[in-house]
Amino acid sequence: MSLKDFTNYKIGGKARYFYQPDRIEDVIDALNFAEAKGVPFFILGAGTNILASDDEFPGVVIKPAFRHIGADEERVRAGAGLLMSELIDFTVERGLSGLEWAGGLPGTLGGAIRGNAGAFGGEIKDNITKVTSLNTKTKKVVERDRAACNFTYRSSVFKIEGDEIILSAEFELGKGDKDAIKKSIQEKVDFRISRHPLDLPSAGSVFKNVDLRSVPKELLDRPGLVVKNDPFPVIPAAYLITQAGLKGMKEGGAMVSEKHANFIVNFDNATSNDVRKLIEKVKKEVASRFGVALEEEILLL
User: What pairing do the DSSP bridges indicate for beta strands 128-135 and 141-145?
Assistant: First the structure.
């Protein structure tokens, strides 16, 4: 099974083994299979935030298909394999407010939780009340409230420790006006369409935005410095890349987007190596010019 067919970048080699389980028992079977074979495993969502290697993945790729969703008044329960767009559509139809910030957000709920996805001042953690996961070592189901998930900027306990598979989550939302909710979501979708290079394969924002508290003082004194809340004060990585004059920089079939500098697009059958080289060039140039170490937001597999 080629990972190129399961990632937004349209890049990646083959996976030696590929599973799409829709039951917890099947996930455990896949984990046991990997252990028996002595090979690694990788959990794949929608592939929207991943740069896969050109080489064969020598182990088991597990793509959980937990796509259930239901609601009890203002409490919503959803499987981790559900697309964020599907979750948003479900809440809109019930007039539930709280996820408007995620309008147009790609990927699955599980991926959004793992990386504490956020945009327009909101984050996935804001309305979560519980996350259910499977510990890959003990094969036991774990339930955590929001505090126990240790959500931080674009991270969580699931990303830091890396030994649990997210199965489902519960949200506490609020009643709202359906038309107002739809309008707010559409505004986010329209913004993404107008600002992001959605016509070419990419993995979205390559780098995390930079915490304002971590940058050199001379950068803070720079005329015209752009700062936004994400949800705390940050300098957009796109601003730094643009100011470094890197829009349009190419490496093989990969290019720093002319439309949004924090996107590296696959414009001409790019390889994983093309993208990786370009990432390193961008990081080196931004560090040299501004004294800032950019950190990848995408996952390198």
Answer: antiparallel
Residue-range domain boundaries for the chain? 3-62, 69-180, 197-300
Q: What share of the chain is helix, strand, coil (3-state, %, to 5)?
A: 35, 25, 40
* C-alpha–C-alpha distance, residues 238 and 199, integer Å: 18
Contacts of 288 (CB under 8 A, 6+ apart): none
Torsion of CA 243, 245, 207, 153, to 10 degrees: 0
The one-character DSSP state at 226 is -
How would you write the pLDDT of the chain (301 residues) with one tens digit per residue?
A: 899 999 999 999 999 999 999 999 999 999 999 999 999 999 999 999 999 999 999 999 999 999 999 999 999 999 999 999 999 999 999 999 999 999 999 999 999 999 999 989 899 999 999 999 999 999 999 999 999 999 998 899 999 988 999 999 999 999 999 999 999 999 999 999 999 999 999 999 999 999 998 899 889 888 889 998 877 899 999 999 999 999 999 999 999 999 999 999 999 999 999 999 999 999 999 999 999 999 999 989 8
Do domains 3-62 and 197-300 share one topology? The answer is no
167 in Cβ contact with 132 (< 8 Å): yes
CA dist., res. 50 & res. 53, Å (int): 10
Distance (Å, whole) CA 210 – CA 280: 17
Contact 297, 154 (CB under 8 A): yes
Instruction: Among 2.40.160.20, 1.20.1250.20, 3.90.78.10, 3.40.50.1000, name the CATH number for the domain at 197-300.
Output: 3.90.78.10
Residue positions annotated with a catalytic role: 154, 205, 297
- CATH class of the structural domain 69-180: alpha beta
Q: What are 253's two structure tokens?
A: 């079939």
* Phi and psi angles of residue 164, each rounded to the nearest 5 degrees, phi first: -135, 145
